């Protein structure tokens, strides 16, 4: 018998400034929800501004572009472009400096997406940086509840459909749900993993009966670890679809010491990282004379 997961808390993502004039809604990495292992931060961005040259160490970032076009470039010579529906998985490892800059849209509209920071296991904190791209056309889909629900299986499994490949070092599931009016779906999740559901658009009911919780756009619903399924539904009278991003990951049994873009396991490691970045050593050697071609882009 499956056991539904109860809701632990609901956090509303409040808009704030980030980068060079960008605006983001952050629901992990705040006072209300500091960390949710292995997850360090979740930003829902809608912006015409970007994120010029900046460093990382000790984590992975997953960027999911929902609308627009975003270019990226780093000090190792990697460069590329994300289009609507594409994802990029970047492992910072021992050190990376990069820029992420949106392109100006012909109609002046904003570039919209999600960026999730995932902690790296202690033994992989100083691995070599790497990128893996996942294009929208590669993502398998499954329709359930007589077509009232469509799931994009970015990573993990849903209703008999497996994702294309493993893209992150830390095991995570990423599922993009579209629920039409009157939809109802039950999603299995790995036991013992931490899981949450972020509402990108519309309204959704999480759970059933007396335990049900209503969630609106920009709400992040955090689940308790006990149980192995979650339930999502929409009202038959809803005037538009709901879109919900369900994310789960294996918790890491390790301390988290974070200072901005540096995420290590001790204060000493963070201080050493600042020294490495300033002196261009131990992974940051290429930062000394590098500047991106896109970081100064202004519209």
Automatic annotation (TrEMBL):
Domain Pirin N-terminal residue range list: 22-118
This protein's record includes keyword Iron: yes
Co-factor binding details: Binds 1 Fe cation per subunit.
Cofactor(s) listed in the protein's UniProt record: Fe cation
Chain residues that bind Fe cation: 54, 56, 98, 100
InterPro entries, alphabetized: Pirin (IPR012093), Pirin_C_dom (IPR008778), Pirin_N_dom (IPR003829), RmlC-like_jellyroll (IPR014710), RmlC_Cupin_sf (IPR011051)
Gene3D superfamilies reported in the protein's UniProt record: Jelly Rolls
GO molecular function, one term: metal ion binding
Pfam family, one: Pirin
Domain Pirin C-terminal: 175-282
Keywords attached to this entry: Iron, Metal-binding
PANTHER family per record: PIRIN, PIRIN-RELATED
Family: Belongs to the pirin family.
Protein name: Pirin
Source organism: Hypocrea atroviridis (strain ATCC 20476 / IMI 206040) (Trichoderma atroviride)
Lineage, broadest ranks: Eukaryota, Fungi, Dikarya, Ascomycota, Pezizomycotina
